[in-house]
């Protein structure tokens, strides 16, 4: 797939974050963080470990509450929603966990069926099966349908986690460190999958990572989270070539690795 | 109900131990309140409820059979010398029947279930919390509380009375073995004698205690698992706390129930 340029996307915001603050006790993680996600784009959030990248997407899906600021997702202010409204919103926002978070007492089929049968009661058994097969095919793992998560490799678990998220056909995908702990070849496959998902299902996505290869391959736009806020935003090349003294050590370190 | 503040990492501000106790009590009551709210509202997880009944009930049966049988056997053996001093060994079946049904069966079943079921629920939910499986249910628009907590608590509450009467029955078989070997009493005579002094109140008291114990074991296990801290140590602590707290509460509840039901006996 030819990577889209950031100018290809319209100005419709699907996620709007303004002046977001979040602290755990006295430890401030995010302070005055502002970020927008536009419809159809893959936005990469780059930053060192422990800078609050995962906290950010957990706030977006309402797993954590912001201390202050605006978090608007698909036109809804997340922290003011009732629990049922929040569950309804989560149908439209997929979340792929860093460690996949597959239900380890269920087979791959049951993992994919779990959210589907509880949220799409209109579907017949044959339609459920067909959707499961479609999603497994989309991530290239049809043969694992009856396997347990413990029988899968790290890369396969990531793919199944993405398939389970995709099965509800979300409008927004949130990827938490999709390539963490994977070898370069499997990482490349996951990067391709993220681009395929964007193209095939027309999703908008936030990809949390500290992997520069991933950022370069999947990101239409990159936002750098440094010192609790988004200091730099732009295309990968713009940030990479900016020579910014805050961003540069991160790039140098990654390439040395 | 807005966003659940019980979800991860809303780190509590430092408070005194006394303050912490009140925060914990508040969270426990909130958790129990949520259980009652969620239990009666659709959608219902019948399939998972049945699976949990099987897990909690059927899988505990072997351990309960063994301990129940031995308890009945040993209790009869230990009681014989005292009764034989008064030439009252014929009262053994009656004594064993009342002791088993009123106290031994509910208490024994409760303690065994606290160890087996409570630890298992605490460890399973703790491990799911640590590996973000509970969060994964949340973000896939499914209510994990309904699927994980409501089903387990209901299953334990339903199966405990069944297990309790099963323990009493197996315990009586142990007693029967002892009595028939020593006194040559037939099974018919034994059961007639054992059951003739048991009243409806005994059965109601025993059932009530079993329901309370079942609810306690599962709600404590679920609470500890659901609120376990990150890491494998947190899972271990959740399982351990689930057992210790449930056992302590079972003894407290036993005392309270005995006091309440003794009012009806007079």
UniProtKB/TrEMBL annotation, chain A:
Keywords: ATP-binding, Nucleotide-binding, Transport. Gene3D superfamilies: P-loop containing nucleotide triphosphate hydrolases. Residues 15-252 form the ABC transporter domain. GO terms for molecular function: ATP binding; ATP hydrolysis activity. It comes from the Bacteria. Coiled coil: none annotated. InterPro entries: AAA+_ATPase (IPR003593), ABC_transporter-like_ATP-bd (IPR003439), ABC_transporter-like_CS (IPR017871), P-loop_NTPase (IPR027417). SMART domains: AAA. PANTHER family: PROTEIN TRIGALACTOSYLDIACYLGLYCEROL 3, CHLOROPLASTIC. This is ATP-binding cassette domain-containing protein. It comes from Pedobacter petrophilus. The lineage of its organism: Bacteria, Pseudomonadati, Bacteroidota, Sphingobacteriia, Sphingobacteriales.
UniProtKB/TrEMBL annotation, chain B:
Pfam families: MlaE. The keyword ATP-binding does not apply. The chain crosses the membrane at residues 56-75, 95-114, 153-177, 197-221, 242-264. One of its GO terms (cellular component) is ATP-binding cassette (ABC) transporter complex. One of its GO terms (molecular function) is phospholipid transporter activity. It comes from the Bacteria. InterPro entries: Permease_MalE. Keywords: Membrane, Transmembrane, Transmembrane helix. This is ABC transporter permease. It comes from Pedobacter petrophilus. The lineage of its organism: Bacteria, Pseudomonadati, Bacteroidota, Sphingobacteriia, Sphingobacteriales.
């Amino acid at each position: 797939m030819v990577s889209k340029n950031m100018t290809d996307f319209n100005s419709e915001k699907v996620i709007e974050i303004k002046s977001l603050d979040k602290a755990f006790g006295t430890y401030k993680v995010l302070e005055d963080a502002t970020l927008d996600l536009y419809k159809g784009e893959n936005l990469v959030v780059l930053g060192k470990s422990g800078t609050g990248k995962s906290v950010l997407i957990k706030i977006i899906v309402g797993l954590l509450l912001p201390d202050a600021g605006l978090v608007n997702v698909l036109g809804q202010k997340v922290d003011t929603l009732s629990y049922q409204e929040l569950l309804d919103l989560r149908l439209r926002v997929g979340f792929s966990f860093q460690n996949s978070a597959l239900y380890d007492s269920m087979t791959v089929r049951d993992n994919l069926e779990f959210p589907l049968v509880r949220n799409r009661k209109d579907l017949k058994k044959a339609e459920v099966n067909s959707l499961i097969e479609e999603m497994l095919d989309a991530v290239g793992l049809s043969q694992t349908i009856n396997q347990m998560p413990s029988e899968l490799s790290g890369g396969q678990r990531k793919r199944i986690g993405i398939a389970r998220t995709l099965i509800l056909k979300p409008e927004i995908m949130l990827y938490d460190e999709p390539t963490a702990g994977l070898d370069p070849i499997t990482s490349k496959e996951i990067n391709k999958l993220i681009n395929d998902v964007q193209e095939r299902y027309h999703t908008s996505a936030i990809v949390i990572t500290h992997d520069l290869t991933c950022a370069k391959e999947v990101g239409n736009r990159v936002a750098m989270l440094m010192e609790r806020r988004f200091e730099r935003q732009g295309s990968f090349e713009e940030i990479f070539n900016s020579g910014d003294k805050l961003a540069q050590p991160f790039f140098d370190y990654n390439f040395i690795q | 109900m807005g966003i659940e503040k019980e979800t991860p990492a809303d780190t509590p501000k430092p408070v005194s131990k006394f303050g912490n106790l009140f925060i914990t009590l508040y969270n426990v009551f909130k958790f129990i309140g949520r259980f009652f709210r969620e239990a009666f509202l659709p959608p219902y997880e019948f399939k998972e409820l049945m699976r949990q009944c099987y897990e909690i009930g059927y899988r505990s049966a072997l351990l309960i059979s063994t301990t129940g049988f031995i308890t009945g056997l040993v209790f009869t053996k230990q009681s014989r010398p005292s009764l034989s001093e008064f030439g009252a060994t014929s009262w053994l079946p009656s004594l064993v029947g009342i002791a088993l049904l009123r106290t031994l069966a509910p208490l024994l079943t409760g303690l065994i279930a606290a160890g087996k079921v409570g630890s298992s629920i605490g460890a399973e939910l703790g491990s799911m919390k640590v590996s973000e499986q509970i969060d994964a249910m949340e973000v896939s628009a499914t209510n994990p509380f309904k699927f994980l907590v409501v089903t387990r608590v209901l299953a334990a509450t339903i199966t405990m009375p069944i297990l309790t009467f099963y323990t009493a029955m197996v315990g009586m078989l142990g007693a029967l073995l002892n009595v028939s070997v020593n006194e040559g009493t037939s099974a018919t005579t034994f059961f007639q004698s054992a059951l003739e002094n048991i009243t409806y109140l005994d059965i109601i008291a025993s059932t009530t205690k079993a329901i309370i114990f079942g609810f306690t074991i599962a709600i404590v296990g679920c609470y500890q698992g659901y609120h376990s801290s990150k890491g494998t140590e947190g899972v271990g602590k959740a399982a351990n706390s689930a057992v210790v707290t449930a056992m302590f509460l079972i003894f407290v509840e036993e005392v309270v129930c005995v006091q309440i039901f003794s009012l009806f006996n007079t």
